[in-house]
Write a structure and sequence with these properties.
four-stranded parallel β-sheet; single chain; about 280 residues; alpha+beta; 9 helices
Length: about 280
């Protein structure tokens, strides 16, 4: 009988279906566990006690790390580790971790109030990007090109955000392209460049922007290795900005979508993940 692996997620998308379908090729029985109904806390929680490993792919930027923490406490291996997920969920914590380790990240300012926001605009030249500390898939990320609209933009943060939703970063706008690197274990499996297109300036892969495969040059490999050195081996989507001074790590996704990268590169990412899980459970 194969090892039992649960994909912990709020829904099944293309990536989860690929992981479930490829599981038997590696002796794995993979199934979905709805992350909204686990009710963890007791050391022998019935919802996860029958599994040999959990693939945490929650799209919630608060739920994943908490669930991984409790699952690890029961002795069940999780991918990624709770520590790695917590770091990736919080853009400020991730950038502080990487910058302290000497990994290049974009310049940024933490904004917790309108006074913070006004000072950030004084220190960073327009255009700038305003993004939530917690969040993903390009949601609520705003490009501010003109000073006369900046205060109106912040009105929405101040009036509609609640608690941690008001925590934001302001950073320089570094152009309309980024490179998504798919890492499994310590291996750079595939890399693709995404370019914003049409009326949407964002280059996030989840938005379906233009993409193409890119070579795994030494500079890309070096910076990917430096990120994994800090987070530990796992399954990551590492987003890089290319600048005249080299690559910068913009974000690291702990539950990366990989359909667009797989399409652009032809890489069978689900099989690489299956093989990695198989090796971990031997």
């Amino acid at each position: 009988m194969g090892k039992k692996v649960a994909i912990v997620a709020d829904r099944i998308s293309w990536e989860e279906r690929q992981l479930i379908q490829s599981g038997p090729d590696f002796g794995l029985s993979v199934e979905w566990l709805n992350d909204e109904s686990l009710c963890l806390g007791h050391p022998q929680a019935k919802s996860v006690s029958g599994y040999d490993a959990l693939l945490v792919r929650s799209r919630s930027y608060t739920r994943g790390g908490m669930l991984a923490t409790l699952a690890e406490a029961t002795g069940i291996p999780t991918l990624n580790s709770a520590a790695a997920i917590h770091a990736c969920e919080n853009k400020l914590a991730l950038r502080a971790l990487l910058r302290t380790a000497g990994v290049p990240v974009p310049d940024f300012r933490l904004v917790l109030s309108r006074k913070d926001f006004e000072k950030a605009l004084d220190e960073l030249p327009l255009p700038v990007v305003l993004k939530p500390v917690f969040g993903g898939m390009g949601k609520r990320v705003t490009l501010i090109r003109h000073s006369d609209t900046a205060q109106s933009v912040y009105d929405y943060v101040e009036d509609l955000g609640h608690a941690f939703e008001q925590a934001c970063l302001v950073e320089p706008y570094l152009g309309g392209g980024s490179i998504r690197c798919l890492v499994v274990g310590r291996e750079l499996v595939a890399a693709a460049e995404f370019q914003s297109g049409g009326a949407d300036w964002r280059n996030n892969a989840a938005l379906g922007n233009r993409n193409r495969a890119v070579a795994h040059d030494e500079d890309v490999r070096r910076i990917v290795d430096s990120v994994v050195d800090q987070l530990g081996p796992g399954i990551y989507g590492i987003d890089l900005f290319s600048t005249p001074d080299g690559y910068l790590v913009n974000e690291v996704n702990h539950a990366p979508g990989f359909r667009a990268v797989a399409t652009a590169t032809g890489a069978d990412i689900a099989s690489v993940v299956g093989r990695h899980v198989q090796e971990l459970l031997r």
